[in-house]
Amino acid sequence: MCIFNRVSDGIELEWDEDKRQATLADRGLDFADVALIDWDAALTLEDTRRPYPETRYITVAPIRDRLCVVAWCWRGDVLRVISLRKANAREERKYG
After folding, report:
1. Which domains can be identified in the chain, with CATH numbers?
2. What is the pLDDT of residues 27-84, one digit of tens each?
3. Among the listed residues 42, 12, 34, the one whose alpha carbon sits nearest the alpha carbon of residue 82
4. Could you give the CA distance from residue 2 to residue 40 in angstroms, rounded to a whole number?
5. Can you point out the beta strands (E) in the chain?
């Protein structure tokens, strides 16, 4: 597993680089752009769909003029990006 770290607004980000590359290829979205989120304008909820080993969150927020959904968790003081995708119509209505 390859991990990349980036600091944005005092928050350190990390992710699996192989998963980032796959998301770039499949969806045209870059985990590094999570650093661009305006967290004050974001909608964040705890992800309780499954019994994950850590507390996971789902954030809906614009990234580069596109509404996106980010799954993430805290690893200590580091925000670990799990997945990133474009928001669907239901999520767009909920955010808007």
Report:
1. 3-95 (3.10.450.530)
2. 999 999 999 999 989 999 999 999 999 999 999 999 999 999 999 999 999 999 999 9
3. 34
4. 30
5. 3-8, 11-16, 43-47, 56-63, 66-75, 78-86
- Check: CB of residue 44 under 8 Å from CB of residue 59: yes
Q: What is the pTM of this model?
A: 0.88
Q: Identify whether the C-beta of residue 6 lies closer than 8 Å to the C-beta of residue 12.
A: yes
Report how far residue 80's alpha carbon sits from residue 83's, in angstroms, rounded to the nearest whole number. Answer: 9
**CA-to-CA distance for 13 and 51, rounded, in angstroms?**
23
Backbone angles phi, psi at 69, to 5 degrees: -120, 125
Q: Please state, in angstroms and as integers, the Cα–Cα distance from residue 86 to each residue in 81, 92, 93, 95, following that order.
A: 15, 10, 13, 13
SS3 68: strand
